[in-house]
Amino acid sequence: AQSVTQPDIHITVSEGASLELRCNYSYGATPYLFWYVQSPGQGLQLLLKYFSGDTLVQGIKGFEAEFKRSQSSFNLRKPSVHWSDAAEYFCAVGAGGFQKLVFGTGTRLLVSP
Amino acid sequence: DGGITQSPKYLFRKEGQNVTLSCEQNLNHDAMYWYRQDPGQGLRLIYYSQIVNDFQKGDIAEGYSVSREKKESFPLTVTSAQKNPTAFYLCASSTGTLTGNTIYFGEGSWLTVV
User: What is the torsion angle, in degrees rounded to the nearest 10, for the CA atoms of residue B107, residue A73, residue A67 and residue A57?
Assistant: First the structure.
């Protein structure tokens, strides 16, 4: 069965600094990978997704992620963080015919002035 | 605007009572889902429905029930059999259930058992 690990529970970044959130997955074949963002008390919004092709995926709000098969990773990056990026970020993996996503436990991003 | 509407946003329930969370979507999506979110545990799938009048158990279906009588509606009932119901509940939908169809989420409902 597939699984997702987000090793960082909390990350604090200064506004304007770069960001990288880590995501490692476990799955035998090529996975479908997603990053979602959740503001406090709100639903989840899709940032980007990877199915195949170019391993560098561009998403909304200036985010990008890179799929590295050799490292089983799908890390999320942003070159310059804004205070409005403070939220919780979830990595998810899907596989097989049915859209049953497995979510990581999330990383809470704090942005300092 | 198209989207997924969950109600109520906040709900308090006494132990031993059943409670129903509403989920309505106007995206014309075939598939709908219910997830439960607990702090530090990510999201876990409760039930999903691929089409009207059909639904399947997810990973943590015990103590929950659903119905899918209309395409746009997928209510979740939290029964008294659910041992630890206090959580944040998220409804979602997608155009289909094949992996790759983007899942869209509602704003969530907070359920607290008092």
Answer: 30
Confirm or reject contact between B96 and chain A (CB < 8 A): yes
Which of A2, A44, A47 should we substitute to test contact with B (largest number of B Cβ atoms within 10 Å)? A44
Using the Cβ of B100 and the Cβ atoms of chain A, whether some distance falls under 8 Å is answered with yes
Over range A81-104, report the average pLDDT.
Answer: 85
Spell out the residues 6+ positions from residue A24 whose beta carbon is closer than 8 angstroms to its own. A4, A5, A6, A7, A71, A72, A73, A74
| Number of C-beta neighbours around residue B100 at 10 A | 13
Tokens of residue A52, six digits: 């195949």
Burial label, A102 (beta-carbon count in 10 A; 0-12, 13-18, 19+): buried
Mutate to test the interface with A, among B99, B101, B109, B110 (most CBs of A within 10 A): B99
* Short-list A46, A32, A28, A24, CA closest to A105: A24
Three-class HEC string of A55-97 = CEEECHHHCEEEEEHHHCEEEEEECCCCHHHCEEEEEEEECCC
Q: What is the pLDDT of residues A11-69, one digit of tens each?
A: 999 999 999 999 999 987 778 899 999 998 888 999 999 988 889 999 999 999 999 99
Pair B110, B88: CB distance under 8 Å: yes
